[in-house]
Amino acid sequence: MNWNRSKKDFLGLLVANIYKNAKIDLTTTNNTVVYTAPSGSRAIIKSILVSEDSNNADTITLTITDAADAVFSLFKEKAISAKATNELLTQPLILLESEVLKAQAATANRLHVVVSILEISRD
Questions:
Q1: Other C-beta atoms lying within 10 Å of the C-beta of residue 17
Q2: Is the model more confident about 2 or about 31?
Q3: Secondary structure, 3-state, 26-44
Q4: DSSP, res 57
Q5: pTM (2 decimals)?
Q6: What is the DSSP letter of 8?
Q7: Which stretches of 6-110 are assigned E, i.e. beta strand?
Q8: What is the Cα–Cα distance from 41 to 74, expressed in whole angstroms?
Q9: For domain 21-121, is the CATH number 2.30.30?
Q10: Is 61 helix (H, G, I), strand (E, B) or coil?
Q11: Whole-angstrom Cα distance, residue 38 to residue 100?
């Protein structure tokens, strides 16, 4: 075996792991993009934290939109208590290339969302 060959030659492809987070303050009741998986990448979502900061209970809806624009519901009007922070995931969630995670608050200016992500690039 020739150990002087590049990692890319040896493995057939080079992958990069990028740890990131996406943060959003839901200042409207519009369906809002939180994160989009890049083309050429997969994303493993490890955590979705939702925090209520106005001392009023609220609800949040989370969806995934796939590359064909089909919408899939993750949480529909999930209750978030006043001054509480909730972890919504119990297991990792996979997003494929160009899939979009969106959030919608029932009331503006109450909820913050923080998503922890591992992107795995195939480029």
A1: 9
A2: 31
A3: ECCCCCEEEEECCCCEEEE
A4: -
A5: 0.87
A6: H
A7: 16-26, 32-36, 41-52, 58-65, 71-80, 85-87, 93-95, 100-105
A8: 21
A9: no
A10: strand
A11: 9
DSSP 11: H
Between CA 45 and CA 54 the distance in angstroms is: 27
Structure tokens at 13: 């492809």
pLDDT at position 16 is 87
Tracing tokens 């909730």 back to the chain, one arrives at 86
Domains of the chain by residue range: 21-121
- Residue 91 carries which DSSP code? S
Count of CA atoms in the C-beta half-sphere (13 A) of 90: 2
3-state class (DSSP) for residue 70 = coil
At 51, list the tokens: 């925090």
Distance of alpha carbon 79 from alpha carbon 106, whole angstroms: 10
